[in-house]
Amino acid sequence: MPSERNGANLGPEGEAGHGRRGRELLNGATALMLAQYNQWADQLLFNAVAGLPEGAAYQPGRALFGSMLGTLNHNYQVDLIWRAHLMGESHGFSSRSDILHPTLEELARAQLEANQWYIDWARRQDPASLAERITFNFVSGEPGELARGAMFLHVVNHKTYHRGWVSQMFFDFGVKPPQTDLSVFLCEA
After folding, report:
1. Which residues pair with 143 in a beta bridge?
2. How far apart are CA 107 and CA 48, in angstroms?
3. What is the pLDDT of residues 23-45, one digit of tens each?
4. Which of 104, 107, 148, 154 is the most exposed place for a label (fewest CB within 10 A)?
5. Burial zone of 55 (CB within 10 Å; 0-12 exposed, 13-18 middle, 19+ buried)
6. Which of 39, 45, 40, 38 is nearest to 178 (CA)?
């Protein structure tokens, strides 16, 4: 029996809802809105982390990536990996947990530049380009194939997930994290 990951919930022609095998999963306007949301949420979170007590971003904690900085570096590195996949290029990484930027300031600058790349990329997309299936290799070397739109949705979803991890770490310092929910962004827009 196929797993959900490889297609257990497919419809009669291999579709899972919209987009699994060629139907529209995402349109250009929604891709752009999600890219802009991603930038907004990251900016809000980086600003909030910068406002924490000195050294908080670097403090080791009970987190898979070791600290706020480690988790944010993971987000950045995964953005670079999927950007390479979207461009049909090799990413050259053998890990998803490298510290590519050792200071919060450097990382924030690099992350916002990567986010701008995604915004510019989203502006150029249409339903056909978003439905185009791309083959790639995961960091593990395992091959994969996804529509560009699905790749991009993964980037946005992945970042939302790990921003939540960083937000949870705020409570270690007795500070309420910023609200980076999509609904907050949409109401502010």
Report:
1. 137
2. 14
3. 567 999 999 999 999 999 999 99
4. 154
5. exposed
6. 45
Domain ranges of the chain: 38-188
Task: Determine the Cα–Cα distance for residues 45 and 180; give it in Å rounded to an integer.
Answer: 7
> Whole-model pTM?
0.86
DSSP H stretches of helix in 53-173: 68-87, 104-123, 127-131, 148-169
Asked if 121 and 35 count as a contact pair (C-beta separation under 8 A), the reply is yes
Q: Strand, coil or helix: what is 143?
A: strand
The distance from CA 6 to its chain's CA centroid, rounded to whole angstroms, is: 21
pLDDT: which is higher, 177 or 6 = 177
As a whole number of angstroms, the distance between CA 170 and CA 88 comes to 37
- Kindly state the tokens that stand for 48: 């909030």
Give CATH for domain 38-188. 1.20.120.450
Distances from the Cα of 175 to the Cα of 40, 84, 117, 170, angstroms = 20, 36, 31, 5
Beta carbons of 104 and 50 less than 8 angstroms apart: yes
Tokens matching residue 164: 């939540």
